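Technical annex, item 7. During the second reporting period the consortium partners agreed on a shared format for inverse folding records so that results from different sites could be compared directly. Each record opens with the tokenized structure and is followed by the designed sequence. A conforming record, contributed by the partner at site C, is shown below for reference.
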């Protein structure tokens, strides 16, 4: 477990605490925990609100959160551990280990059906998967699209299918675009999870535990919450209006994405969004990616992960909010190329990502700060509260 002792400093983080408390008071979040690092030193930590609003259980640092796409950072680190060992290179075709993905057809631009395809011109590489530029989709964030319907009909994300079985399902579908020519948030991390299994000879959960969780003391992170610890799992909520994430109001939503999620083992070890963790465990992972002490990966590997790997002029894009201008993508997270109006000065070069229920992390070489915010409100990815925390934290340090 990460050291939670806050280093005394001259910084006044009162504005950060007030901003987070305001989100609870205005019914935007039930509860929120956060931590701020300056270098590797913990300079602020607070928990406000409720782990379970209905039962009036105050949020504590040891409560468990569904971290969703923060799982992708763990999977990316697992892949880079194997890269460091020389087991494969970033430019290698993934079909060497997952042959089903070796000759997928590709949808033609403007295709009206799954049959309207052209041949694959370039193999999917491991770099393509790490940067979500392989041409895969998700069936999650683009309702109404051709690929959304196809992924849903074939149940690509079904919890009853192993990662190996998911690869067979993906082999039945075309790619959205030629690898390396676009960006689409996708099941690429699940493909990487299967790659880790094939190359290491271990199930993904065993590899994670042996190579990442145990060495870093992440004692509460995993794909399932043991019965003895399920009382620590925070309640999950949906907003009052799914189409308006900024509208106050919360509705209990514990069965998302399916009944019993995280309460019992499932065949699918979701490498893109399946982990549960705590603030101390996520803080331990974040610290292990920062200079100033032992790191999980070599410094040159971390530097490679934290730089933009997308072509000039390309940015990440979502169905909502559309293109995120000024954001490229590294090997496991977004990279800020040009800060938006929501971000503090000095944010260029920031490495960050998060999950759909509001848990976010960031590492800022420009400001020397890193941070983590954890909450449980569905469809809270890339929402203003994350940037508010970051902006307030940077302001507190800069103004001291």
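Designed sequence (site C submission):
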């Amino acid at each position: 477990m990460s050291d939670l002792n806050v280093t005394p400093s001259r910084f006044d983080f009162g504005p950060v605490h007030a901003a987070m408390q305001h989100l609870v008071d205005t019914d935007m979040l039930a509860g929120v925990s956060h931590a701020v690092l300056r270098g590797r030193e913990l300079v602020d930590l607070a928990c406000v609100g409720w782990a379970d609003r209905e039962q009036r259980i105050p949020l504590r640092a040891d409560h468990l959160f569904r971290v969703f796409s923060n799982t992708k950072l763990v999977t990316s680190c697992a892949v880079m551990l194997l890269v460091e060992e020389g087991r494969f290179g970033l430019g290698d075709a993934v079909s060497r280990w997952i042959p089903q993905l070796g000759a997928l057809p590709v949808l033609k631009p403007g295709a009206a059906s799954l049959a309207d395809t052209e041949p694959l011109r370039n193999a999917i590489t491991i770099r393509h998967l790490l940067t979500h530029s392989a041409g895969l989709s998700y069936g999650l964030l683009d309702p109404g699209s051709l690929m959304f319907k196809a992924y849903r009909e074939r149940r690509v994300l079904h919890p009853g299918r192993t990662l190996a079985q998911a690869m067979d399902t993906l082999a039945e579908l075309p790619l959205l675009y030629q690898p390396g020519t676009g960006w689409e948030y996708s099941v690429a991390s699940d493909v990487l999870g299967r790659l880790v299994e094939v190359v290491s000879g271990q199930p993904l959960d065993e590899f994670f535990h042996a190579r990442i969780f145990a060495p870093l003391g992440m004692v509460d992170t995993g794909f399932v919450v043991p019965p003895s610890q399920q009382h620590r799992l925070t309640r999950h909520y949906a907003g009052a209006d799914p189409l308006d994430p900024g509208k106050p109001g919360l509705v209990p939503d514990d069965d998302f994405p399916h009944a019993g999620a995280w309460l019992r083992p499932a065949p699918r070890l979701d490498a893109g969004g399946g982990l549960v963790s705590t603030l101390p465990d996520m803080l331990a992972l974040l610290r292990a990616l920062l200079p100033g002490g032992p790191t999980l990966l070599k410094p040159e590997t971390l530097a490679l992960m934290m730089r933009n790997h997308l072509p000039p002029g390309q940015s990440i894009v979502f169905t909502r909010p559309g293109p995120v201008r000024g954001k490229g993508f590294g090997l496991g997270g977004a990279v800020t190329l040009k800060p938006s109006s929501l971000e503090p000065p000095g944010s260029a070069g920031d490495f960050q990502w998060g999950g759909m229920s509001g848990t976010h992390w960031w590492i800022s070489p420009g400001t020397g700060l890193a941070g983590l915010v954890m909450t449980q409100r569905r469809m809270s990815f890339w929402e203003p509260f994350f940037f508010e925390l970051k902006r307030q934290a940077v302001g507190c340090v800069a103004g001291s």
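Residues 14-70+220-398 form a domain with the Beta-lactamase fold (CATH 3.40.710.10). The chain has a mean pLDDT of 94. All partners now use this format for quarterly exchanges.
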